[in-house]
Design a protein that fits this description.
This protein is an alpha+beta fold. It has eight helices and nine strands. Strands 7-8-6-9 form a four-stranded antiparallel β-sheet, sandwiched between helices. A three-stranded mixed β-sheet has the order 3-4-5. The protein has a two-stranded antiparallel ribbon with strand order 1-2.
């Protein structure tokens, strides 16, 4: 993770003996929705601003310790590990710890968005297909083979959702022969939901990418 996204040390951790008013002030100042609790250099957990706001500002943080959450990532975790946590805990900040539970800093949701935006799937010009297929038949290898057999370059594919055991797939390709590619997918029992040839594809990417960062359905 250190090599992919910079760890921020700008946000101070708090202690259980600190006042809730301090924690709420930190949330407001740093525009974060969780504060990190640390004791003697060790990570203890996080408390959300929503929980803090239900207590008196004059109370100490330890009064709401039962509501502490324990999510974090290790310093060399993958980028997608952080995406999963951002989604699961509806947070915009994740603490980073080492193997001895030492608090190292945080990463921000916006930094993950910026990093993902550099991926080829989003930067390369191309055409997008939305496909559906029964989940049990979903195969990235097959999708790649069908694409390459039509002399298309595959820039990326991801599973955008599953409903009623049907997988919805977003596929981005170079786009030299889209009609032929779509027909090939249909021969393999894929339902071609949408094809985006022009500027509408950019709208789709932005829309899907926004959904990803606002708690993706992967």
């Amino acid at each position: 993770m250190v090599s992919l996204v910079e760890i921020s040390r700008d946000i101070p951790s708090l202690r259980l003996e600190d006042l809730i008013s301090e924690a709420l002030m930190l949330c407001k100042k740093q525009q974060i929705n969780h504060v990190v609790i640390e004791e003697e250099g060790k990570f203890k957990g996080l408390i959300s601003s929503d929980v803090l706001s239900t207590y008196s500002k004059n109370q100490k943080i330890k009064e709401c310790r039962d509501a502490m959450q324990g999510f974090y990532i290790h310093e060399y975790s993958s980028l997608l590990d952080s995406v999963r946590i951002f989604k699961s805990f509806e947070t915009n900040v994740i603490p980073i710890i080492d193997n001895e539970s030492k608090y190292l800093g945080v990463i921000y949701l916006i930094d993950i968005v910026d990093r993902l935006a550099e991926y080829t799937f989003f930067t390369e010009q191309g055409v997008i297909l939305e496909l559906e297929i029964p989940l049990k038949k979903y195969s990235v290898n097959e999708i790649s083979q069908i694409t390459e057999s039509n002399n298309e370059r595959l820039y990326g594919v991801f599973l955008s959702g599953v409903k009623n055991n049907t997988a919805r797939i977003i596929l981005k390709v170079q786009g030299n022969n889209m009609e032929g590619l779509a027909e090939s997918f249909e021969r393999f029992d894929y339902n071609v939901v949408n094809k985006y040839y022009n500027d509408s594809k950019e709208d789709l990417l932005k829309n899907r990418f926004g959904n990803l960062m606002k708690y993706l359905e992967i």
